[in-house]
Amino acid sequence: MNSKLRVTVWGENVHEHKNKLVAQAYPKGMHTCIADALNKDASIVARTATLDQPEHGLTEAVLEKTDVLTWWGHCAHGQVQDAVVDRVQKRVLEGMGLIVLHSGHYSKIFKRLLGTTCSLTWREAGEKERIWVCNPGHPIAAGIDKYFEIEQEEMYGEPFAIPNPDEIVFLSWFQGGEVFRSGATFKRGNGKIFYFRPGHEVYPTYHHPQVQRVIQNAVRWAAPEGKWIDSCPNVPADKAPEKITARGPTLHKAGEAGLR
Amino acid sequence: MNSKLRVTVWGENVHEHKNKLVAQAYPKGMHTCIADALNKDASIVARTATLDQPEHGLTEAVLEKTDVLTWWGHCAHGQVQDAVVDRVQKRVLEGMGLIVLHSGHYSKIFKRLLGTTCSLTWREAGEKERIWVCNPGHPIAAGIDKYFEIEQEEMYGEPFAIPNPDEIVFLSWFQGGEVFRSGATFKRGNGKIFYFRPGHEVYPTYHHPQVQRVIQNAVRWAAPEGKWIDSCPNVPADKAPEKITARGPTLHKAGEAGLR
Amino acid sequence: MNSKLRVTVWGENVHEHKNKLVAQAYPKGMHTCIADALNKDASIVARTATLDQPEHGLTEAVLEKTDVLTWWGHCAHGQVQDAVVDRVQKRVLEGMGLIVLHSGHYSKIFKRLLGTTCSLTWREAGEKERIWVCNPGHPIAAGIDKYFEIEQEEMYGEPFAIPNPDEIVFLSWFQGGEVFRSGATFKRGNGKIFYFRPGHEVYPTYHHPQVQRVIQNAVRWAAPEGKWIDSCPNVPADKAPEKITARGPTLHKAGEAGLR
Amino acid sequence: MNSKLRVTVWGENVHEHKNKLVAQAYPKGMHTCIADALNKDASIVARTATLDQPEHGLTEAVLEKTDVLTWWGHCAHGQVQDAVVDRVQKRVLEGMGLIVLHSGHYSKIFKRLLGTTCSLTWREAGEKERIWVCNPGHPIAAGIDKYFEIEQEEMYGEPFAIPNPDEIVFLSWFQGGEVFRSGATFKRGNGKIFYFRPGHEVYPTYHHPQVQRVIQNAVRWAAPEGKWIDSCPNVPADKAPEKITARGPTLHKAGEAGLR
User: Fold this and answer.
1) How many alpha carbons fall within 13 Å on the CB side of residue A169?
2) Domain count, chain D
């Protein structure tokens, strides 16, 4: 029996090859660092997928076997094919979990699911970030004390242009004076979504034990609890739960599919 | 002084010309019927726009002068240009109100803003619909009794694939045995959104006084209360609210725009 | 190892002894019927507690060992001691799940946690209720088809005076023409709350297999995922995360507890 | 015609008489300072009420003529009579707006409406607070730039034990390193509720022009838009919207009131 949670860690994997600082911080790529961290959790089996692979490594077959997808991208959001975004969205609505990391706030899939611009203010000054827990009993904050600190991070500040989250798990304090909703949950269809702020590529953030712990927690929290295969079925008059007789004008002929 | 609320009533205006039943019910088009109803309210000035007009009648100039947009479409959702959908979305996020009517649940703009499929079950049998008020003090339900009835309507049933609404103002009971969340509010960016279920084109629904009253109420409820011009500004280290010194590695050069 | 979910089924247990019809439908009490149904689920161990027991059977010790509490009451809400309500509320805020059944909408604990009157309209006419699923992938709806029916039930109708739920899992259609939000989730503190409508005491509702299935599902859904022990700690200036020097006037002396 | 918004500013008015620092900052009481600020807004007429008055100045007659109530209390929450809290709650559920200020987070009325402990962490060190706007288009943030600062304030930090707000309008950054959800909206029944953090009594916070502006904005935002007179009506079988015949066992006799 294999009841492990199947996670696909998606990484853009571009800056790792173009920028020495990123390559130094993540010699095997950010996606491998994140997947390794997840695989330390005995309940999880994580694989990776990257932009440069056919269909960005997110084929129908891969997604069908993915319980939770994590997403990190930055400079190449525009290169992600719309057909793959459609496919990921469909799986999230069915129930696949989605963890969006840092600059993934501007990914096509996050903006698609939230419906807003997802913009924010930002500064790259290597300043300190302190991440506070808003509900100490929340499963995504398990094992985290009142707060944890990241010595050097990019700043993301409010206003963060997202719809009101279902829950705010973390808030960030920045040395330079800003604040941010750093851990926020959403539900779209039957899929659980968690946005987690840290992870600028020139810093070793994904090596940080508490960042790793939060991502492990989030993946377990986002595990599917059921599947919603969505359609838009017609219910003919003679199949109505209550007996009715169709009457009056109609647009559609019997058995016709609905308009889209 | 002109402090009237400026409403643009968007109508697909296709079935009115192809289907005799629709043409009989709405000789001047559904959009004209809705706009006429809104113009009975002294606080509102409503104009119309239709699919066949250049840019579907929704130019930058028109949208800039629109406080609230109402949207009805059915058979031609796919013909709405993406550039116009982008423009409408941008205005909603800034603060323009949006009222989505009936089969508009499958419009590009509604799906874009909600991030889900917005599907439902349906039946065209001319059955009775009874629309119940869930909060008798809600401004969208002003002047409506405990419920009102529409003698003949298309049935829309649950599951309705939308994110959890901010508020549910109406629930529908159908003669054939189904139920539906018929009046639901959302907020995206600074824009208020209201979905209102009734309005199948072969029935005279938009002539119904209580349907008209709800749409008038909804338009007033959705009036902009401010404007959010969204961007994603960089805050350089020397402009941080607290004095900090930039340190460590950086990806961006000073003054560079962020990645998207 | 005992990793079963520990459920306490609370029953008012008054009408069972005063009304022949109720006694016939539930010879061992409604609470026993519900507990028996839960104990059919191998992952659950359910015990009962009733109003007539000391501290209504809900001592500190019992609640400490309760993962999820189910609550049914009707004619004796006023007899529940406030001290017990305080205790239950405290445990819910820490993370204990709470399933509120039918006439429990007027229980002290439900009104306490929601902050509203929780009123509704009602009729006792033995009419048919059809309960629709709003998200077919939701764990509380697992194993339930599009809808299920209860041949005879009391009607509860909108407006239901609750704050907007986090999710609506079920909506009811009644033969007499009303609708109702029959399955609704809330979160207070770290505790998950589910309200489930059916269960008028003169009908055999809690013998209904799908009603039993929903309550089993709900109990598993509401299982605690962590614990939030709440306090209101002072953080002295010399323990602040950032180095600060206290300055200016103060109301409190060092080490003083806060005001409540 | 008098269409001004009628505001009652409730103040505990205890520390003003016991503590020299508070008396110096607010010679006429904090409530008077707040009411004076509101009365600068031509659309508002504000009166005051205090703990020491009969029924704390919140008689049925006063509340009936109050559109929005603001609440500041700290050391005497326990002295507020439950009957008055009941009355205020009833009016909020009907539609009266409620603005809860600073230490009012622990007031009986706020905890009553939210259902949680409303606790937080705190420090009195006269440190700087910077209050960030999360939605620049929100009416409560009108006229406020990206942020404003209060040179000396008490610190309130997360976790703030409230249910997830409908919207977060402001987040605070504190010099000592904490963050807080400083401006949060809720709806209970038909009443709009806004919590606003600043206002420790030993500092001149309520003289701060931007704090005054936010309270003016909030009062206008919370204005009633309708009235919900709540009851729990029985609908007899012969008054059902659909024709039904009562059948089967009943608990209640015809015309009997429901149980509570």
Assistant:
1) 22
2) 1
* Contacting subunits of A (3+ beta carbon pairs below 8 A): B, C, D
CB-closest option in B136, B160, B181 to C159: B136
For residues D24 and D15, give the distance between their C-alpha atoms in angstroms, rounded to a whole number.
11
Chain B hits for C174, CB-CB cut-off 8 Å, are 173
Query: How far apart are alpha carbons B166 and C167 in whole angstroms?
Result: 10
Q: Inform me whether the C-beta atom of residue C132 falls under 8 Å from chain B C-beta atoms.
A: yes
Q: Parallel, antiparallel, or unpaired for β D44-50 and A5-11?
A: unpaired
pLDDT tens column, D93-139:
999 999 999 999 999 999 999 999 999 999 999 999 999 999 999 99
Cα D106 from chain centroid (whole Å): 11
With an 8 Å Cβ cutoff, are A132 and D158 in contact?
yes
B99 — pLDDT class (breaks 50, 70, 90): very high
Contact D226/B136, CB-based, under 8 Å? Answer: yes
Domain of residue A132, CATH code: 3.40.50.880
Residue C30 is which amino acid? M
Read off the pLDDT of residues D21-77 as tens digits, 9 standing for 90 and up. Answer: 999 999 999 999 999 999 999 999 999 999 999 999 999 999 999 999 999 999 999
Task: Break chain A down into helix, strand, coil percent, rounded to 5.
Answer: 30, 30, 40
What burial letters (b/e) apply to C18-45, b meaning 16+ CB within 10 Å? ebeebeebbeebbbbbbbbbbbebeebe
List the one residue out of D107, D159, D154, A148 whose CA is nearest residue C230.
Answer: D159
State how far residue B75 is from chain D, nearest Cα, in angstroms. 34
Q: Which of chain D's residues have a Cβ under 8 Å away from the Cβ of C78?
A: 260
**Cα distance from C206 to chain D (closest Cα, Å)?**
16
C21 within some domain: yes
Yes or no: say if A172 and A131 are a contact pair by the CB < 8 Å rule: yes
CB C190 within 8 A of CB C164: no
* D131 phi, psi to nearest 5 deg: -105, 115
3-state DSSP assignment of residue A77: helix
Return the biggest CA–CA distance within chain A.
72
In a domain, residue C245? The reply is: no
Tell me if D226 and B138 make a contact (CB, 8 A cut-off): yes
Q: Which chain D residues are Cβ-neighbours of B241 within 8 angstroms?
A: 130, 147, 149, 173
Q: Is B226 within 8 Å of D130 when comparing Cβ atoms?
A: no
Closest to C74 in 3D by CA, of C100, C96, C56, C92: C100
Phi-psi domain of B40 (left: phi exceeds 0; alpha: psi -120 through 50; beta: other): alpha
A190–C135 CB contact, under 8 Å:
yes
Measuring CA to CA, which residue among A252, A246, A256, A249 is closest to residue B24? A249
> With an 8 Å Cβ cutoff, are B119 and A231 in contact?
yes
Q: The complex's ipTM?
A: 0.95
CB contact at 8 A, D147 and B241:
yes
Cβ neighbours of A229 in C, within 8 Å = 136
CA D151 to chain centre: 24
In a domain, A32, yes or no: yes
The range of the structural domain enclosing residue D211 comes to 5-221
Q: Which amino acid type is present at position D89?
A: Q
Using CB atoms and an 8 Å cut-off, which of residues 89-108 of chain C contact chain D?
89, 93, 103, 106
Chain D residue closest in CA terms to A172? D179
Q: Mutating which of A116, A128, A250 best tests the B interface, going by the most B Cβ atoms within 10 A? A: A116
- CA angle D164/D169/D174 to nearest 5° reads 95
In a domain, D100, yes or no: yes
Query: A–B: how many Cβ contacts below 8 A?
Result: 202
For residues B85 and B110, give the distance between their C-alpha atoms in angstroms, rounded to a whole number.
Answer: 10
Alpha carbon distance B94, B247 (integer Å): 36
